[in-house]
Specification:
The complex is a heterodimer. Chain A is an all-beta fold. Helices cover about 0% and strands about 45% of the residues of chain A. In chain A, strands 2, 5, 6, 9, 10 and 11 form a six-stranded mixed β-sheet that branches. Chain B is mainly β. Chain B is globular, with a radius of gyration of 13 Å. In chain B, strands 2, 4, 5, 6, 9, 10 and 11 form a seven-stranded mixed β-sheet that branches. A four-stranded antiparallel β-sheet of chain B has the order 1-3-8-7, with no helix packed on it. Chain B is built from no helices and eleven strands. Helix content of chain B is about 0%, strand content about 60%. Chain B starts with a strand and ends with a strand. Classes of the chains: A mainly beta, B mainly beta.
Chain lengths: ~110, ~110
């Protein structure tokens, strides 16, 4: 069975500090992974996906198949980055996403 | 926002009553999904649809049913609401792998 684990429920950092939100997955096939973000009082929205290898709002994520991880990183956190972040794994067989439990990022001034 | 709306946005109901939540999309996406969001659990899939009249169960489907009679509408029914179904419900749509899903604004349901 596929599973997505985000070990940290809450991550608190100061503005300007580096950020790493951890995501580990288990999946027998070739994974398609996403990061979604939910800002306060807003709907979930896509932040980035591994197949496009893009950087959005300064965030990057690299798929490490050996460690089965897809950690989200940003070198210098900003206060507006405070939000709930979800890692998600695509199940091609059912066209479904499996989400991790989420990590709340708080960036303090 | 991919033209996804949910109604109602907030609802308080009593234990044992039936409740129907509606998701409407204007993007003609084939796939539609219902999730519930609970602290510590993230989002869990309740039911999904891969076309008109084609639906299937997700991870937490007990106590819920769905219907999709038109491409644009996906209804979620709580047959007899219980307090454990107090949650925030999100609808999502998508074109299937490898594309992302688009989310509605959510419905906050409280069962007293």
């Amino acid at each position: 069975a596929q599973r997505v684990t985000q070990p940290e429920k809450l991550l608190s950092v100061f503005k300007g500090a580096p950020v790493e939100l951890k995501c580990n997955y288990s999946y027998s096939g070739s994974p398609e992974l996403f990061w979604y973000v939910q800002y306060s009082r807003q709907r979930l929205q896509l932040l980035l996906r591994h197949i496009s290898r893009e950087s959005i709002k300064g965030f990057t994520a690299d798929l490490n198949k050996g460690e089965t991880s897809f950690h989200l990183k940003k070198p210098f956190a900003q206060e507006e980055d405070s939000a709930m972040y979800y890692c998600a794994l695509y199940n091609n067989a059912g066209n479904m996403l499996t989400f991790g439990g989420g990590t709340r990022l708080m960036v303090k001034p | 926002d991919a033209g996804i709306t949910q109604s109602p946005r907030h609802k308080v109901t009593e234990t044992g009553t039936p409740v129907t939540l509606r998701c409407h999309q204007t993007e003609n996406h084939r796939y539609m999904y219902w999730y519930r969001q609970d602290p510590g659990h993230g989002l869990r899939l309740i039911h999904y649809s891969y076309g008109v009249k084609d639906t299937d169960k997700g991870e937490v489907s007990d106590g819920y049913s769905v219907s999709r009679s038109k491409t644009e509408d996906f209804l979620l029914t709580l047959e007899s609401a219980t307090s454990s179904q107090t949650s925030v419900y999100f609808c999502a749509t998508g074109r299937g792998s490898p594309y992302e899903q688009y989310f509605g604004p959510g419905t906050r349901l409280t069962v007293t």
